[in-house]
């Protein structure tokens, strides 16, 4: 029992760092982890994953807001839009075959990954390592990081009614996936925010987490009423994911935009593979 709790903390820590750094809820890792580690059925895996995503995303979102690495108005719009369809996704999960939406989700993730890789290749490279090491002091290094965040804000779109409407539309799609597959929906929102609204990667992660912490709530309430959540497992993982999300958010200013895009694209590849493997029933 103690060993399982320790493993849950480690899994939660990894999920939390990914959430804070990339703006994802971590469901793509949590669902197979709950399947393998706790031998839950598919519905309980997705329900428990969705529950764990809420404290994880709240922790990361608060850190992003403090660090000013997010667009709160856009995040709220996407979250409210997603909250409208999250319970519908939960309902669909209980009445439709897994392969249909799982297959579609895998295709969407794979397409998003290819798009993100292309954007990463086009992004400007950072200076050589020697240039980075030449920074004289921690104060100077901090100033460089602040300048990078300021540049991201300069490149970010102004969030008016049009942008909020687009954000709500993105959230609707993400909310449906969130309720059905037990994920936060960040793997959908981050690429779409970049593609449709031209939001810099350094600001999409925090914006996505704000949306995730809102859109997941109705789905979790629905799953709780249906009795599908394993509270012990969810709380154990959350104990690791909460500090992990804070750490991930703090890493944002330290990681170059290009590197962030490559990391996210790689995460999407793994996520698509996990969906396919899970659908083929290879988790045991």
Give descriptors for this structure.
globular, 12 helices, 284 residues, mainly alpha
What is the number of independent domains?
1
Largest sheet at a glance? none
The span between the termini is 21 Å
Order of helices and strands: HHHHHHHHHHHH
Share of residues in helices: over 70%
> In angstroms, what is the radius of gyration?
18 Å
Low-pLDDT runs: 128-136
Helix/strand/pairing class, anyone?
A: mainly alpha
Average pLDDT metric: 81
Number of helices: 12
State which percent range the strand residues make up: under 5%
The number of distinct β-strands equals: 0
Approximate shape: globular
What does this structure look like?
There is one protein chain. This protein is an all-alpha fold and 284 residues long. The chain has one domain (2-124, 139-279). The protein is 82% helix and 0% strand. It has 12 helices and no strands. The protein has helices at 2-22, 27-38, 42-67, 72-95, 98-122, 129-133, 138-155, 161-181, 186-197, 201-225, 231-251, 257-279. Helix 1 packs antiparallel against helix 2 (27-38) and helix 8 packs across helix 10. The longest helix is centred in the N-terminal third of the chain and has 26 residues, at 42-67. The two termini are 21 Å apart. Residues 128-136 have low confidence and may be disordered.
């Amino acid at each position: 029992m103690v060993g399982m709790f320790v493993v849950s903390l480690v899994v939660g820590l990894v999920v939390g760092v990914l959430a804070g750094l990339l703006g994802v809820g971590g469901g793509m890792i949590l669902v197979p982890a709950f399947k393998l580690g706790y031998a839950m059925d598919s519905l309980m895996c997705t329900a428990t994953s969705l529950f764990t995503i809420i404290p994880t995303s709240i922790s990361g979102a608060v850190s992003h807001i403090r660090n000013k690495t997010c667009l709160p108005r856009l995040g709220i719009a996407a979250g409210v839009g997603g909250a409208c369809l999250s319970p519908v996704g939960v309902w669909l999960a209980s009445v439709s075959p897994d392969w249909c939406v799982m297959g579609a989700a895998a295709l969407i993730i794979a397409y998003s990954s290819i798009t993100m890789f292309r954007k990463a290749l086009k992004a400007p490279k950072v200076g050589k390592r020697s240039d980075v090491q030449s920074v004289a002091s921690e104060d100077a290094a901090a100033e460089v990081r602040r300048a990078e965040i300021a540049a991201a804000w300069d490149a970010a779109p102004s969030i008016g009614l049009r942008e909020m409407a687009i954000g709500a539309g993105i959230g609707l799609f993400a909310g449906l996936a969130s309720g059905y597959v037990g994920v936060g929906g960040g793997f959908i929102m981050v690429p779409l925010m970049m593609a449709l609204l031209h939001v810099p990667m350094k600001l999409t992660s925090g914006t996505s987490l704000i949306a995730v912490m809102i859109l997941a709530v109705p789905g979790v309430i629905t799953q709780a009423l249906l009795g599908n959540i394993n509270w012990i497992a969810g709380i154990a993982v959350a104990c690791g994911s909460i500090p992990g999300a804070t750490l991930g958010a703090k890493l944002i200013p330290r990681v170059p935009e290009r590197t962030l895009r490559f990391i996210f694209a790689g995460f999407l590849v793994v996520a698509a593979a996990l969906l396919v493997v899970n659908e083929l029933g290879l988790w045991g």
